[in-house]
Amino acid sequence: MLPLLDLRNGLNQRPLVRSRKQSTGQFAVTTCRDHPEFFDASVELEDETWEDLSFLDYTPAHYAYYDTLLERFPEYHLCMVDVETRELIATGMCVPLRVAPGSTLPREGWDWLVNTAESQDSKDANTIGALSISVPKKHRDKGLARDMIDTMRSLAAMKGFARVIAPVRPSAKCEHPFVPMEQYVDWVDDRGRIFDPWLRSHVAVGGDVVGVCDRSMVVEQPIDFWKPWVGSHLAQSGNVPVKGALVPVEVDVATGMGRYVEPNVWVSHNV
Does the pLDDT value for residue 7 go beyond 50? Predict the structure, then answer.
């Protein structure tokens, strides 16, 4: 688990937890509230990381509120930094919200988190909702995304919140777009572990798989909108796979629309 700290004091102040040593340096996590100079770079890093899936920016919730939430909650906008070089190497966005204890998490997943955080008074919050963790390709396979999950748990503990909830986007599901998510989550590898690497990372740091949110992110746009991702002319109705997408895009030539309904998996982390 990485420390949450103010980089102006370097590592001299006592961190919440032990920091991670890597051959490239020592990494720590701060927030855009404490270091607003990282805000623009963090947004740019996230955009670059998700560029191939930028159609997800067009769910109604994302399009209307996501940028507003970044500005409204800088203390929940996490920046992982190389302490020596001050290079931003990963970023994570979460939001405060109130969830009634024992309530069932909804089918709408990610979009619901955004809409709820936008509409609620954050003073009543008891839960952190994880919206994104972005690690560029050159920094992957170092365990940094898992460290960011742990840091969100640390942030929840600092705020006195009960848990972190995440509509997790399973990282290998895109290789099996026609397999129902309800079936996919039950897959195990040859060692008996959860098959999906990103779900497995959440469970490894104490997360519990709660269930599928089958309408987590919904994008409905005219057929021409989808051409940059599909790479071909969409002349027939049907389910069209898209690189990186978890399920196919549903194309309806009669209405001239393409509809993408992404399922995610609710994971809950008790603090």
Answer: no
Strands 163-168 and 127-134, sheet pairing: parallel
Give the 3-state secondary structure of residue 213.
strand
Tokens of 214: 């089958």
3-class SS at 81? strand
pLDDT at site 52:
94
Measured from the Cβ of residue 265, the count of other Cβ atoms closer than 10 Å reads 26
Q: Report DSSP state, residue 45.
A: H
pLDDT at position 23, please?
A: 40
Cα dihedral across residues 45, 47, 51, 56: positive or negative: positive
Q: How confident is the model at residue 25 (pLDDT cuts 50, 70, 90)?
A: low
Asked if residue 5 has pLDDT above 80, the reply is no
Q: Cα(22)–Cα(223) distance, rounded to whole angstroms?
A: 46
Triad 150, 202, 69: Cα angle to 5°: 65
**The amino acid at 205:** V
Residue 110 pLDDT grade (very low, low, confident, very high; cuts 50, 70, 90): very high
Each domain of the chain, given as residue ranges in start order, spans: 7-217+265-270
Supply the pTM of this predicted model.
0.90
Among 89, 69, 187, smallest CA distance to 145 is for 89
Q: Which CATH superfamily is domain 7-217+265-270 in?
A: Gcn5-related N-acetyltransferase (GNAT) (3.40.630.30)
